[in-house]
Amino acid sequence: MGIDLTTSTQDQNSNREPTNREILEAVKELGTRFGRLETENREILETMNEFATNVEGEMGNLKAEMGRVKVEILDGIDEKLGNLKGDLVVLTRKEDRKIVRLVEILRDKNILAQEEAKQILGMEPFPQLLI
């Protein structure tokens, strides 16, 4: 039994230097791969840019809509406050009429002096200067 001193062709191929043609083909393949990556990256960037532009547009629309809604809300609040103020004035006037009538009754029965009646009726919120 002897030892085979010849090397296989596979061993010979793995130990040899690549040829210029093989190097050129490898460089071309890398160039092709790089070109595809560059194209894919460009497409991704274009898509992201388009998305960002759409988001910016929508943000502008949302800001405008929020401004419009804010104005509507504030107008509604102003109107409600105006109505409430009017209602409070009406209620206060009704109460004032009751007080005026009570003072008149007490003055007519000589429970209040004329000067005391003037002082009471001259008080806020609706002072009456002439009696």
Main sheet properties: none
3D shape: rod-shaped
Taking Cα atoms only, what radius of gyration do you get, to the nearest Å? Answer: 49 Å
Number of helices: 3
User: How large is the share of residues in beta strands?
Assistant: under 5%
Structural class call reads: mainly alpha
Give the helix proportion (percent range): over 70%
Please tell me the total number of domains.
1
Mean pLDDT: 87
Q: What is the total tally of β strands?
A: 0
Distance from N terminus to C terminus (CA atoms, Å) equals 146 Å
Low-confidence stretches: 1-8
Along the chain, the helix and strand elements come as HHH
Report on this model:
Residues about 1-10 have low confidence and may be disordered. The N and C termini lie far apart (about 145 Å). Helix 2 (about 20-110) packs antiparallel against helix 3 (about 115-120). The protein has helices at about 10-15, 20-110, 115-120. It contains three helices and no strands. It has one domain (about 20-120). The longest helix has about 90 residues, at about 20-110. The protein is mainly α.
Task: Give me a quick take on this structure.
This protein is 79% helix and 0% strand. By secondary structure, the chain is mainly alpha-helical.
Write the SSE topology.
Blueprint: H1 9-15, H2 20-108, H3 114-121
Helix pairs in contact: 2-3
